[in-house]
Amino acid sequence: MTFKELKLDERLLEGLDAIGFEKATPIQEFAIPKIIEGVDLIACAQTGTGKTGAFILPVLHKIAQLPDEARHLNTLVITPTRELAIQIDQQVEGLSYFTGVSSIPVYGGGDGDTFITQKRALEAGADLVIATPGRLIALMNSDKVDFSKLQHLILDEADRMLDMGFLSDILRISSQLPENRQTLLFSATMPPQIRQLANKILKNPEQINIAISKPAKGIKQQAYVVYDTQKLPLLTAILKDDTFKSIIVFSSSKENVKNIERELNKHKLGARGFSSDLDQSAREELMNQFKGGKVRVLIGTDIISRGIDVTGIDLVVNYDCPPDPEDYIHRIGRTARAGSAGTAITLINQKDQRKFFRIESLIGDDIPKMEIPKDLGEGPAYTPEKKSGGNFKSKGDSNGKKPFNKGKGGYKGKPKSNNYKGNRNSGSSSSPKSQ
Ligand code: AMP
C-alpha cells in the first residue's frame, strides 16, 4: 500500500517522497490507520520492520492538523537509550521536514547546557519529545513543564526498558500524564511483564505481531555496492562463473528483464526472461526447461519469487534491491531449498542503500560487501545511515544538540530545494528507468 493511499497529510507525503519511502511496510500499513483512528495499540515488532515510521507518521499527521493553540507537548516517546532517542529524533526531522512540527530529544549525560536546552524546549512546549526515562523525570520536576495537552504516549522497545529496570519510572511518568491520552506500546518481545505493564497503562488496546522470517541457514549471502552503470557488466562477470549451474536473476521491472536478457545473451550465457507477457503455456514450457536444466539463467520480476519450487537453484541474484525485507527473504529462499547450499547476491545501487540496510536490520546481520572486479572500476561507499537522515541537514551540532524552534514552518536550517533534490540523486550515474 502506498502512503498516499493511507491518506496522510500532503506535507508528510512530500517528506516521504523526498526521503524515498514509497510503500508502507506491513506494520505501517496496519498501525497508521489505527493510530489515526485513536485506538491504543500493542505492537510486537523489531527494528527493521519500519516500526518507528509506524508510530511517527500518524502522530505527525495528527499534529499537522491541529491549530497552533492546541499544540503543546503533544506527544511523548519514551525510549531506553540516548542513541535510540537521537535516532528517532532524526527520523522525525526527516519525515516532518515540510510540516513545521518541532521535536526535541531528551536524554541524560551531556553538560549543563544540554540540560538547559532540553528544559527550555519542554517548557516552551515542543510538539514531540523523545526521551529516556531518567532525564525526563528530572525535567518533569519543573512546574513549568505542562503535559496537560499531551495526546500520545509511545513506549518504544518496551521490553528493553523493563530489562534495564525502568518499570517504576515509566509508571511514574504515565501517572503524571492526562488520562484521556492515546498510548502505544512497541516491543520486540512480549514477556508477561510487558502484558502487565500494558494492562496498567493502555485502554482496550488492539494488537499487531509482525512475524519475522529469517533466511535459511544454507544460504551464503553477499552484496556488491555499485553504480547503476556497473550492474550489467558485474552480473555478466558473476554469471561467467560456471560453478553456478542454475540461476535466477530478479529485477524490479519488465523492461529491465528484457534488457538483462539481451545483454546476457550477447555473452552466450543461456538466459531467458520470464514475464507476464508470456502466455500460460509459454510460461509453463519455460519453467520446465529451467527445471530440466535446459535454461541456465531465468530472469524475472517478483512474480517468480513466491510460486516456484525448483530444487537445485544454486544462485539467486537480486539485480535490483527488493522493495522490502520480506521480499528479500522470499527471493533468496528460491535457493538452498530442502537444506541444500546456495548463494544469494544483491547488487545495491546508491538509491537502494537504505532499503538494503533495512533488510540487514531485519535479519539482524551485516551481509558481506564483496569487491567489484578491478576492470569495472570502484563502486560507491556503503553509507546507508547517511542516506536516511542525511538528506536533511541537522538542525544542530554533531552531539545531537539543536536549537529548539517552535511553530509551524519554523525550520531554520532548510536547505534550498534544488540542493536537496541534488542530494537525493547525487552520484547516481543513470536514472532508475535506464538501469
Ligand atoms: P525501524 O524498524 O523503524 O528501525 O526502521 C528500519 C529502517 O527502515 C530505517 O532505516 C528506516 O529509515 C527504514 N524504513 C522505514 N519505513 C520504510 C518504508 N516505508 N520504506 C523504506 N524504508 C523504510
UniProtKB/TrEMBL annotation:
SUPFAM superfamilies: P-loop containing nucleoside triphosphate hydrolases. The keyword Nucleotidyltransferase does not apply. One of its GO terms (cellular component) is cytosol. Belongs to the DEAD box helicase family. Keywords: ATP-binding, Helicase, Hydrolase, Nucleotide-binding. The lineage of its organism: Bacteria, Pseudomonadati, Bacteroidota, Cytophagia, Cytophagales. Residues 384-400 have a biased composition (Basic and acidic residues). This is ATP-dependent RNA helicase. A motif (Q motif) lies at residues 1-29. One of its GO terms (molecular function) is ATP binding. Pfam families: DEAD, Helicase_C.
